[in-house]
Amino acid sequence: MDDKALWLILGGGLVTFLPRWLPIVALKNARIPIWFQKWMSFLPVSIFSALIASDIFFWEGNVSLNALENAKLLPSLVTALVAYYSKNMILSVIIGIAGISLTVWVL
Q: Which chain regions cross the lipid bilayer (predicted)?
């Protein structure tokens, strides 16, 4: 391995480490208001929902709500129902993968 690759790996590690470490160090003794803590608790859910929704509703670069054109719609609905009723993440992932695989294979 040459020096450029080593510096690239070290720089990449530093760039991913610092944004996680600096807020912890800067805010470890700070008092954060309750309203801000509540507001921040919604961020992971909203970001995850945005990522999932953008992946489900976009098919081949266009927004598609037609289940016959978009192979992700029906398996996503089935997976959401399985996740809601079973509360089992592994079963939901298996159903989702199987559903997408079958739908893409059929279409």
A: 6-27, 39-59, 89-106
